[in-house]
């Protein structure tokens, strides 16, 4: 833009005029031009800038036209578009936008290049690349050098303004490209730092809107065989979409329209898959790309930008998912620790002293909270001991163990070790547990004087009594090393209503060793899926039966671990050992 | 977040604050421009745009904000922004708005600075406001 007009004619130029005259007196035919020039020169205030200069020039033109107002309209190639030749969001080149107006209008914000003079009460004067409009002009543009100069100057100014605008637009577009790139980069940082899925959904939606100049947007996440709407903006969006909707694939590839009703109020819809088209984690859908003149479709570069953004979003979503999993795991671990604490409280601290007898209980859960349970309760003249195994592990198992413990606390003194006790326990466990939960339980009562043991076994591994061979006569005696089993007398508790239970009895003689155990011992497996089994357990007991009970347990533990050959312990392990010394 | 931009204007002794809530897009930007034009016609030459309620702005909204800045420069007025999200503040810096308009973290600081005559350009005030 020319901030100042060309230099005025010099006295040397005037010297060519015929006839002598004073240097400061121009010839009469030059005087009107010179007067105009001085007038124009006075307009050129270098500090006011070119827009102000053109405004003043326009004002001068308006006065010359004797018009109430004047306006300058310029054609624009692309005002706010993304520079994408595929995009039709930029205004039409045939549309001219009002740049500057002075005086009274009304002047519309835009005119088409083929606008008719007199339309809307305006007089229109066409210039290269623009239109001069005058309101209430008195007739046509007056002829004469003054008019010619003004028009030429306005035309030149108009061209300069237009170039300046183009430069400004290019500058804007370059800057906005930087914003887009920064946004995509920031998305990686900002939304990767947002691990809350709700917040992440909002971030993704808002950034997609902003990045694509979209008026509306929707964000879907995949849940099983469908996409569920997480967030939308600017209008309604379909709540859910089947993942196998036949319209979806061509739509996401930019080769087909949006599935029915996806964004009912939108005219132009574009969507991309998050995390690739094979196994998308979700969808980002934008609609109605904005320009200063309205909305239009998105172009190829918009699709590329949105795809890039979707890739970044996929990483962020994966981070959020993993974070949520980690939090859930942490929460479960805390709950498990708490449950383990509670369960530890249920297990006895040690074995009660029983003259003439040795007693030991040992338990090692496979996870923090196991399903095994044992108890050793002394009573006057004897002892009640319990070993149980609840199906499953974790909190559910711990709760059921706790239920069993409480029920035994309430009932055992009143009912004693009997089928009646097991009937009641069975009913109680059935009511208190989930359908697939049950308990195997071996409950025994020892008379420490006689060595008589009365027991009921509800589906638990049979206890093993290793005879010393020192006994005589009645039930319970046997040959040295003979093994007697405390076999089941009914189904596990909680498995079936109305189960019936039978009790059994035997007598322990001096030197006899009783071993109660859970299936974690006998079902301990090696790499060939072979189980440790009852035979190996009996052999181990026989080999070490004369050692201290602590050593016997240590030997069983060592042998099962050697058998497993480094495989992790998969099930809880519990052992109760009872030996009669005299 | 509000779906269409809502505007509230407060006039205070020659200074006017425009509060926005919602998306500064084409429609939102035009709303702001309309409010700014009314204030200019009423003789206000010091405008503060508080964008606390705005989380997003698109390129059309920015181009309209630039036009408002240009208009304020033409009338030797002052324009500043305050309470921007980090994303919007970064965008304004990249797009050059911060060269011609002050950017402040806090409305009270912005009002003080603008009344004190310090909001001619954005960069100095911006650093001062952040400091």
Give a structural overview.
The complex is a heterodimer of chains A (582) and B (131). Chain A has helices spanning 11-14, 31-43, 50-65, 145-191, 197-211, 248-252, 300-346, 394-415, 419-432, 519-522, 533-544, 549-564; strands at 69-75, 95-103, 110-112, 122-127, 130-135, 214-223, 226-233, 240-242, 269-274, 282-291, 294-296, 357-364, 372-379, 382-390, 439-447, 452-458, 463-466, 483-486, 503-507, 513-517, 573-580. Chain A has three domains: 11-169, Beta-Lactamase (2-Layer Sandwich), CATH 3.30.450; 192-321, Beta-Lactamase (2-Layer Sandwich); 347-580, PPM-type phosphatase domain (Phosphatase 2c, domain 1, 4-Layer Sandwich). In chain A, the strands form four sheets. In chain A, strands 6, 7, 8, 9, 10 and 11 form a six-stranded antiparallel β-sheet that branches. By secondary structure, chain A is an alpha+beta fold. Chain A is built from twelve helices and 21 strands. In chain A, strand 13 and strand 14 (382-390) form a beta hairpin. In chain A, 37% of the residues lie in helices and 24% in strands. Chain B has helices at 26-41, 59-74, 86-94, 97-100, 107-115, 122-130; strands spanning 6-12, 15-21, 46-53, 78-82, 102-104. In chain B, strand 2, helix 1 and strand 3 form a beta-alpha-beta unit. Mean pLDDT of chain B is 85; it is low at 118-131. Chain B has a single domain (6-130), classed as Transcription Regulator spoIIAA. Chain B has a five-stranded mixed β-sheet with strand order 1-2-3-4-5, sandwiched between helices. The chains are: A alpha+beta (582), B alpha/beta (131). At the A-B interface, helix 4 and helix 5 of A face helix 2 and helix 3 of B.
């Amino acid at each position: 833009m020319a901030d100042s007009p060309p230099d005025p004619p010099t006295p040397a130029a005037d010297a060519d005029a015929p006839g002598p005259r004073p240097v400061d007196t121009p010839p009469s035919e030059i005087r009107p031009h010179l007067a105009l020039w001085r007038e124009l020169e006075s307009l050129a205030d270098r500090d006011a800038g070119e827009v102000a200069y053109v405004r003043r020039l326009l004002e001068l033109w308006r006065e010359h036209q004797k018009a109430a107002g004047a306006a300058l309209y310029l054609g624009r190639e692309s005002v706010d578009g993304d520079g994408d030749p595929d995009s039709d969001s930029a205004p039409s080149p045939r549309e001219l936008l009002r740049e500057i107006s002075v005086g009274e209008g009304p002047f519309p914000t835009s005119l088409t290049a083929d606008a008719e003079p007199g339309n809307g009460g305006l007089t229109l004067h066409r210039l290269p690349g623009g239109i001069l409009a005058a309101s209430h002009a008195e007739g046509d543009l007056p002829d004469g050098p003054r008019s010619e100069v003004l028009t030429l100057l306005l035309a030149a100014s108009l061209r300069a303004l237009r170039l300046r605008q183009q430069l400004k637009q290019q500058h804007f577009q370059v800057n906005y490209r930087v914003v887009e790139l920064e946004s995509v980069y920031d998305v990686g940082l900002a939304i990767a730092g947002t691990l809350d899925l709700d917040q992440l959904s909002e971030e993704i939606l808002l950034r997609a809107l902003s990045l694509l100049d979209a008026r509306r947007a929707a964000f879907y996440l995949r849940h099983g065989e469908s996409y569920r709407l997480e967030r939308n903006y600017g209008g309604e969006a379909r709540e859910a979409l089947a993942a196998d909707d036949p319209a979806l694939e061509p739509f996401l590839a930019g080769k087909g329209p949006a599935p029915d009703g996806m964004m009912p109020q939108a005219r132009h819809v574009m969507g991309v898959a998050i995390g690739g088209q094979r196994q998308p984690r979700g969808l980002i859908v934008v609609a109605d790309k904005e320009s200063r003149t309205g909305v239009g479709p998105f172009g190829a570069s918009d699709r590329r930008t949105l795809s890039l953004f979707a890739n970044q979003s996929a990483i962020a979503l994966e981070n959020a998912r993993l974070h949520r999993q980690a939090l859930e795991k942490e929460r479960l671990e805390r709950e498990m620790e708490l449950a383990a604490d509670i369960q530890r409280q249920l297990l006895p601290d040690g074995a009660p002293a029983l003259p003439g007898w040795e007693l030991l209980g040992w338990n090692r859960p496979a996870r923090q909270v196991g399903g095994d349970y044992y108890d050793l309760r002394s009573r006057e003249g004897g002892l009640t001991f319990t070993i149980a195994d609840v199906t499953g592990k974790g909190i559910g198992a711990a709760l059921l163990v706790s239920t069993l413990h409480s029920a035994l606390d309430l009932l055992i003194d009143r009912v004693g070790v009997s089928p009646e006790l097991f009937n009641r326990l069975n009913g109680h466990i059935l009511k208190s547990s989930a359908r697939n939960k049950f308990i195997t339980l071996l409950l025994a009562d020892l008379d420490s004087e006689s060595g008589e043991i009365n027991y009921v076994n509800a589906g638990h591994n049979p206890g093993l009594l290793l005879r010393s061979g020192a006994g005589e006569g009645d039930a319970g005696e046997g040959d040295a090393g003979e093994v007697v089993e405390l076999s089941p007398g009914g189904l596990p508790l909680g498995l079936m209503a109305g189960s019936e239970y039978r009790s059994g009895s035997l007598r322990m003689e001096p030197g006899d060793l009783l071993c109660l155990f859970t299936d974690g011992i006998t079902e301990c497996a090696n790499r060939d899926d072979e189980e440790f089994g009852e035979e190996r357990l009996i052999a181990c007991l026989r080999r070490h039966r004369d050692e201290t009970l602590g050593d016997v347990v240590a030997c069983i533990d060592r042998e099962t671990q050697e058998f497993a050959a480094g495989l992790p312990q998969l099930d809880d392990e519990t052992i109760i050992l009872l030996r009669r010394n005299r | 977040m509000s779906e269409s931009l809502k505007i509230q204007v407060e006039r205070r002794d020659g200074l006017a604050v425009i509060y926005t809530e919602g998306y500064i897009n084409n429609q939102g930007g035009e709303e702001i421009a309309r409010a700014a034009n009314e204030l200019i016609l009423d003789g206000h030459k010091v405008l503060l745009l508080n964008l606390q309620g705005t989380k997003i702005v698109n390129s059309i909204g920015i181009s309209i904000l630039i036009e408002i800045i240009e208009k304020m420069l033409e009338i030797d007025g002052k324009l500043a922004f305050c309470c921007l999200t980090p994303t919007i503040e970064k965008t304004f810096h990249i797009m050059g708005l911060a060269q011609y308009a002050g950017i402040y973290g806090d409305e009270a600081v912005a009002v003080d600075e603008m009344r004190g005559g310090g909001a001619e350009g954005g960069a100095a005030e911006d650093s001062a406001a952040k400091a």
